[in-house]
Amino acid sequence: MTRTIHVTRRLLAVAIAVGVGLALLPAAPASAASPSQRIGSGFFGMHDFNPATWPEAPVGTVRLWDSGVTWREIERSKGVFDFSRLDEQVTAARANGARVLIVLGQTPKFHTTKPGKRGAYGAGAASMPREAAWKTYVAKVVNRYKGRGVDYQVWNEANVSGYWQGTPAQMAKLTQWTSKIVNSNDSGAKVVAPALATRLSSQRLWLRTFYAQRTGGKKVAGYVDAVSLNLYPVASGTPEASMTLLTAVRTMLKQAGVKKPVWNTEINYGLLGGGTAKRIKASKQAAYVARTFMLNAAANIKRVYWYSWDLQNLANTQLTYDNDTSLTKAGTAYTVVRSWLIGARTKGCVRDGRGTYTCTLAYSGGVKRVYWNPSRKVTIRAVKSARASMGLSGVERSARSGVQIGVGMSPVMVRSAK
Prior knowledge:
Elements: H1 3-17, E1 44-47, E2 61-64, H2 71-74, H3 84-95, E3 99-103, E4 118-119, E5 122-123, H4 131-144, E6 150-153, H5 168-185, E7 191-192, E8 196-197, H6 201-211, E9 214-215, E10 218-219, E11 227-230, H7 239-255, E12 262-267, E13 271-273, E14 276-277, H8 282-298, E15 303-306, H9 329-341, E16 345-351, E17 357-363, E18 366-372, E19 378-381, E20 386-390, E21 396-398, E22 404-407, E23 412-416
Parallel strand pairs: 1-2, 1-15, 2-3, 3-6, 6-7, 8-11, 11-12, 12-15
Antiparallel strand pairs: 4-5, 9-10, 13-14, 16-17, 17-18, 18-23, 19-22, 20-21, 20-23
């Protein structure tokens, strides 16, 4: 199927997801209280619709969603599976050094319990599958890619009606079945909980209900290796607003006794629904990318999947041009912030009275401090042992003790001995 069709289906569900019912949340304070983590290549995840191209940047892991490999696109007729496109995508990702996250579902019409209910992917797609059919499909996928650096996600956005029209209890049952199959057949693969949207109050309440479910004698979180959140803020929202959503959801997870690692499985900005986006300048796009990865790292998010390299309409921050390979200004910012983070240990972020953020990273050569102010231009004074500074262009400049450095919405990194 063509990329246009995949994205059109995505737009239908996003229109539902961004519609009404958003409860405004208080701003989340930046603090240094998050646990420290060392950032590896797997932190940097992407979505890529086109396996025939690859961006001019390193990617640690790829999430296969909206890329023509849903269950109903693999099993087009009952009992007949066509893995050719999924094979192509897994091979391409692994050849470029990326781990793969396969999103399971959507249900073929002939396997659904409610064929008359229409989802974003067609009749019955968002409904509960029959148990035997689900288990057969999942086992085939897991055994096909066993030992190839592939992880498995139970479902996409189970709290968005375009993708799932079953109950939280039914999704918990699917999670239990999936966990047993994956763990029995590929001990090196992770089981990732259903992705859950977070921007609407109703979606967050669904999340609370889902993580309260018990099935097979234990809570549903006991069947997964990671919690999956799609942390899109409202259309006018910023990376900092996305972290406010994270704070609210983490409170709910804590109340539910969930202690699993958190993955941010979709993030971009400006989503209005219906195929439109709130446009922003290229310089702001670059700033948003850098701030996203810095804040997620400081918040102890284990993986961040940008949606996506090659999406040109749905959201406002594009990382590649139309050839799906050459990097935009935002794509370059991705490579720069990756160079700041990779191999470093996060020490948290703080925000001062003027709204200026300082995120601290410890690395083998000393300390990196990353500064920005989302709303105004300010100056910061370099620490005594400062050696160099770098903006999102990737050009390093010398910096000395006490020098004043201009900072605005685009992060600037200052490298120092301590």
